[in-house]
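Structure, all two chains, one model.
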Amino acid sequence: MKRPIFTLFIAAVVCLATTGDAVARKKAKASIKTAHAVPVKPKKVAEAGLAEARLIEVYQLAAQAQGREALTKAESLVQDYPHFQLAQLVYGDLLAARTRPIRILGDVPESMLKAAAPVLVELRDESQMRLKALRERPPPGAVPSQFLALSPRNKHAIAVDASRSRLYLFENRPTGLALVADYYISIGKSGLEKNAEGDLRTPLGVYFITSNLDPKSLKDFYGSGALPINYPNVLDSKRGKTGRGIWLHGTPPSQFSRPPQATDGCVVLANPDLDQVIRTVEILTTPVVISQRLNWVTPNSARSASKPFEEALTAWQNAKSSGNMDRLLSFYSPDFNSNGKTLTEWTPALRSELDKVRGHAIQLKDLSFLRWTDAADTMVVTFGEVADGTRSGPTKRQYWGRQGSQWKIFFEGVIG
Amino acid sequence: MKHTRSTIFATLRLLTLAAACTTTAAHADEYGDVSQLLRSGKLTEAMIKADVYLAAKPTDPQMRFLKGVIQRNAGKQAEAIATFTKLTEDYPELPEPYNNLAVLYAGQSQFDKARVALEMAIRTNPSYATAHENLGDVYARLASQAYNKALQLDGANAAVPPKLALIREVFKPNLKSQTPAAPAVPATVVAKPPAAVPAPAAAPAPVTAPVTSVAPTVAAAKPATAAAASAAPAKPAVSDNSVKEAEAAVHAWAKAWAAKDMSAYLGAYGKEFDPPGKQSRSVWEQERRKRIVGKASISVKLENLNVTVNGNKAVAKFRQDYRANALAVSSRKTLELLKTGDQWLIVKESTGN
């Protein structure tokens, strides 16, 4: 009688063999945390990612025909996370397996089926996505192809892979980007590629966290906090995209996690996971890449891919240092637009900048550039522009677009 | 279907258990009197009689058990729980107090506690059918709760019926055959198959819902034969001889059990027999030996034996009245037999549905 449920999980877990250390991984992560001695207040918080690790453990036990043990673990899991619906579903299956065969995840009684069908589909999706992300791990040492160069000021970086309902959190160490955690997330009800206000889609692109909203100012619906991102960014606006208020935020008290496609366009994490992200990241300097499917590359290949762009950037730097206006202007695209100003309207401002630095070379401090490739190829560049002989300068952001083999600037502005 | 079960069934179930303790001859009258009063609803008198008896013999488990039933029927849930809890502490080897404790907990929708109590009952006596059945129901109930939380079906909480009704719903009556309602059981066995025929279409998979009625298990449990049954509602034609042989094998098994003839008893089980739980054959045999040989006396009576034969396979369904020492348990039982050589040997033994 108990047997059929095991087959149910076997398919899911067989491929997990390589990630059977999901629990161990969480533990390892915990020790990393202490090693870094981040001054976390000794507040009692639910550990990020723990609920999922425990769920996977239940799956694995069930797959190994350890029904009793699985049931016990599931029971304590739902006691600790009563609103973790997927865990409740699995717990229900394990209980029901003691009285009848279970054929499928969420084998609810016929009487419940009608009312439950849509939610069941969502919970099965969630289960599948969580397993997928744990099965298809990023190659060790690899980074998302967007992160070409990060500066020491970018202490962390975030990448969202919608195809796996996953958010990857990186720490930018002297040795390079290191993946420190990843969490299940939900995106827009209508999917990706936000275009217009109210289209219930999550934007695709390179963004930055702009602020950290006080949870007290938020409705329960947003959970334990919110990190807005700068949608629409320069590229979005150039393309006429509309909408606003895209946040990374938490879940309401009644739901530990939400289905893979559930939001109005925001990226939603379970509260313990969001809390960990909030504790980790920095405002303004933490990039957030949202992608349909991340392309993982080795840091070396990322570096070599960025060579042509680096040359263009150095040429621009030299042009600006030279003080030659015509030469400098050749780097700017005809469709340049800086906060509503066309290139012609903006040229006087550029000229006065040149006048100021005349005779002094400029240096680019804390340079970072992230590449976004879709129909177009775009580079989002951030640096501090410091003229020789001065101690500081404005932090600038440029958007470069590739036309053929030529990189041209279509936005330039001062941030922060 | 569930709602047709009246309070009386739930009560009778507890009475059945109470009656279980009425076998020691010397005190049969007192127990019988109290039971009678209970049955006729004279709770106050029953309580007085029980208390008088207990004043003289305060530890007597049978009368304390009856007292618990009286308290429960009088609506004194907390006192009944206390009585049964104390009994489980004083007589941890008795499964019945655990079972009734579970009934009371389930009545309060405390299915987790009910589950623990029933698991204790089964640990105490692995073959205790009532607890197995009840535990199945409690698991189903817990599963349903978990599903409701998973699916966020708000209706679920609102729909929880009043506590006593819940007992009716969760627990099936476990009637002894001599009770007035009993004739209905064999009657439905015969009458039900046509009604059960639409079921296979609605529920194609062999899911035996624990709360379905007693009768259609033949159709529900064996999808393979269900088709045949619907084509020919009558018993498939098999030689009377096979049926008689299989019946004889079942009777011989019961006789060997009652006689504590272990070699005959264990010999009634075929090589293919799958011991319950995760036990190995030898562990199971050891356990049976321990349970059976240790008893002063055992009586196993079979009632409403119904054997169906299909080729070299037979299914025997019956009500088993088991008495050992002071315990008596009445349960439904199904034996699946396989003809091996010229012998019918048991390959599966299950209680309840």
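The two ends of chain A are 65 Å apart (CA to CA).
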